[in-house]
Amino acid sequence: MLKKLPLPLRCMLVLIAVALIATISPIILYAQTATKDITGVILDSKGTPIPGVTIKNETTAKAAMSDGNGRYKIAASKGETLVYTFIGYARKSILVGESAQVNLTLAEDADKVLNEVVVIGYGTQKRSDVTGSVVSVPKSRLSQLPVTNILQSIEGAVAGVNVATTSSVPGSQPNALIRGQNSITAGSGPYVVVDGVPLSKTGGSLNDINPNDIASVEILKDASATAIYGTNGSNGVILITTKRGTTGKPVIRYSGYAGIDNLAHILQPSSGAEYVQKYADFLKQTGQVQQRPVPNINELPAYNAGKTTDWLAEATQQGVIQDHNVGISGGSEDVKYFISGDYLNQKGVIKGYEFKRIGLRSNLDVNVTSFLTVGTSLFLTSNNYDGGRANLLLATAMSPYGQEYNANGTYTIYPMNPEQLYTNPLLGLTTTQISRTTNINGNGYAEVKFPGVLTGLKFRLNAGYTYFPKREGSYYGRLANDLNGTARSFNASTNSYTVENILTYAKDIEKHHIDFTALYSAQERKYNETTAGAIGFINDELGLDNIGAGATQTSGSYRDRYGINSQMGRLFYAYDSRYLLTLTARRDGSSVFGASTTKYGVFPSAAVGWNISNESFMKNSKLVNNLKLRLSYGKTGNEAVGVYRTITTDGTSRSPFNGISTIGVLAGNLGNSNLQWETTKTANIGLDFGVLNNRISGSVEAYQNKTSGLLLNRSLPIITGYSNVLDNIGKTSNKGLEVTLNTQNFAGKDFRWETMVVFATNRNKITDLYGDGKDDLGNRWFLGKPISVVYDYKMTGVWQNGEDVSKQDPTAKPGSLKFADLNGDGKITGDGDRMILGQTTPKWTGGLTNTFHYKNINLSIFIQTAQGMTKNNPDLSYGDETGRRNTPAEIGYWTPENRSQTRPALSYNNTLGYAYASDASYTRIKDVTLSYVFAQSVLERLHLGGLTVYASGRNLHTFTNWVGWDPENNYSTRGSGDWTNNYPLTRTFVLGLNVSLR
């Protein structure tokens, strides 16, 4: 083609082509060398990948987002600026250089924390807009702690939330109390909501929620925050949000730990020599002649052979705990998913105690259209508590010379034969014990966003269903000292549903912001149970598997239904992010109330907030960065009555009549159809602050609760056939102060030190009981005093030889406990010589967390304290039982030689029933965690997205004056309770691993 053109024209075209190539080539070459993909990983200060970080190229305006592993990719050229932003973290700018990989750490920004979104119930809100008392559990408490229940992570870490581990039985749940006790007889536990749907009142518990699946925990404490839950909010609300999917390719994470459990403190029984000496001292003090060195003939062979049995060692073992969790998350802009599976296996420190949990969770969010989003939160949890158990109570009481085994290798029934007060503490291991629960929970939602002039209006439908079957069974046979054989089977199921219709509207008009929420909901729970039992089996071969083979059969069944309908409205208004107002009202109707009164109650609240730091006169303040004042007042309710307690019911009784077993009817519950809600009115004032560039931040809150209409049993003349009837007659008052303080003590390049302090004090008292101005001595309820107190004699020492007892306690002898004669009548009696010795709940609690960071190493030390509580001490009041019990060496006893002022003589009979009130205050090194976050360069070689290893210890040491196993735990003495809960506090050491794959 070119050859046909004239030569001059061909030369001209060639010159033009060369010129174009010369001009374009450098541009192409520059583009090829300067434009590149920048990749890297974004971590927080603890080395954990941050998903959802926005990366923007300020030159080209292109943007990207980090995935679930914190990894990102964005096109940029040398000399261009990349800006990294994420809520709650300081903005960071990076100038692109030669390297194509940019890894960085984002520092938390206290100013931006105010803009982070927190869950407040039926919605979310910016922290700076919150007017009620809403506190978030520190994220550091939600991971890298070897806990089986999330309440164990909260213990001591949140001001105003008192979590007590009264038993360390594997799989047991701690008790939680938010802002003290308002009711005397009704439950005081908080209401628990998971992913917007109630967990409380469905049969399940927090044991069914795997801590690894939890993304955040918020606690609602005042009426402004809890009134939105009406009758369920009177004792506070715990809101749990589980992890959801994120945009990006699938991310696989594994979290696991394994470790050992040991008894945190051992109340060591006396040795063989101490046991023999105690028996000799007992005989001497009681004036008896000693015929042999040990109390029982069957103990002599072991004594003569110098052989002892350490019963505590025989009943205990090395505890082992392991937990493995695998999660997969990811998705696109329209579909996001999170799937996890968990396996927990805990072998207790006392033989036979075990807990196994298997859990599956699936969370799904789908943007069906631009205006419709649907999602699910499904989980299944199977809890297994099977196993016969050793008896710690008997193990600590047994003679060291008792015989553990028979000649054929079976357990001796009576190791101290002919003594039959004590059976072998290991007999429970020969029994069949079944205890299992399953929680099948399915929640779904659909959310519609309205467009156009209705922008800001959303409708959400929440629906939840729970099926909670429970199975228990037991068989006691000949090896367990049951010569007839006894079988029992128990099956129960709870079916619950919740339907919530939620309408929200949010609108910004210049400096005005309005947020309105309306709710209509319905809940229903159906419960049924059946029992079967039998006594008298030919042998123990079939046991629980053939109850019909028993000679005497028993059976029973029960069912009930509970329902509640609710309507709620909440209006939030903010002007210029300075002046805040929240108005809430909820109306609940409950099926538990009778026909003679309305089943509905209305629970309103109001709160105002003032962001002082947003005022113009505070804008240039270099000292104060954040200052907000909050005030709230409102009313909440408490049903406080069980199903069918408002109606009169009868019971049945079998009696022989003319040689025939006849069923008769007898008086059961006397119903009161006029019963109404217990009502709590709450006032709260709070101040949130941040100073010195937020190096110091926190909050101070004070509150007062007044509860009326308490449900108490009013006594009736027995001639009516009933001894009492429930009535709304009591009143209580409850007030307290809470302080939370966060400080950044040192912030260097490689080393940082942070501290968190929480403090809370609470005082409750009974202001009225039955309207007659009198105390209830039988129940230990006193006007003007705390709800739960210790009322007993005031011990002042022990009577010694030569002391004159005639003017104070004429019946006392040397070695008897000495009590104060409070009424001065010259004798110790229950009429006038008892007094309130203290309250069973702490007067104040606190927590101190110090966290140290050095490069990739992190160390967290948490100390918890509870002060000012008094408890009866069962280890001291547990009698010597005529010299036959092997009392703990730490407790001791009085002799004329040692002249003890704290312990009585072995001959002392506690006829007054003194319960040995003791100071139960303690300070505990609750947990210490050391972790190491592997650097990105190592992760690249290992082809991993993230890797953290850690070692953690819990309940490392307790500082206390308590004499016994542990001041926090509750223990039962013989015949006074369930011995299976006699399980002391354990000390745990684990090694853990958190790893994510690319």
Q: How would you concisely characterize the structure shown here?
A:
By secondary structure, the protein is mainly beta. 8% of the residues lie in helices and 47% in strands. The protein is globular and about 100 Å long.
Walk me through the structure.
The protein is mainly β. Among the domains are: 73 residues, Carboxypeptidase-like, regulatory domain (Immunoglobulin-like); 138 residues, Beta Complex (Ferric Hydroxamate Uptake Protein, Chain A, domain 1). The protein contains ten helices and 46 strands. It has a 22-stranded antiparallel beta barrel. Strands 10-15-16-13-14 form a five-stranded mixed β-sheet. Strands 3-2-5-6 form a four-stranded antiparallel β-sheet. A hairpin with a 2-residue loop joins strand 30 and strand 31. The radius of gyration is 34 Å and the shape is globular. About 3% of the residues have low confidence.
